[in-house]
Sequence to fold (125 residues):
Amino acid sequence: MPQKRTKTKYTKEELDDFRVIIDKKLAIAKEQLSYYITQLNDLADNPDIKTKGLDEGGASLETERLNQLAARQQKLIQHLENAKIRIHNGVYGICRATGKLISPARLRAVPHATLSIEAKEKGLG
Fold:
């Protein structure tokens, strides 16, 4: 009886499908980043922030929160762009700890994943 071969790479069609998912998530992430930057600029440019009900402490808390959200979006954008590079290089979807394919369900949920669930649970990588 012939042995079943383990798949080691995604097909071009599968990679194209993942690229579409990544592009959509990238567009949303860039939109959100733009929104946070606009909010930060509005806070910085507004001399009468106190009249809007934000005292100095509240304004700095809001600025800090927006800075954290913007930094998170920038990190997500970088991860998504790195995933596109991995697609281009033909190594997308391969777990960096085990060398096995990351499940399509995981990649659809977290398209920038570089670890399989198995590796993540074992604390590898």
Q: What stands out?
A: The chain has a mean pLDDT of 88.
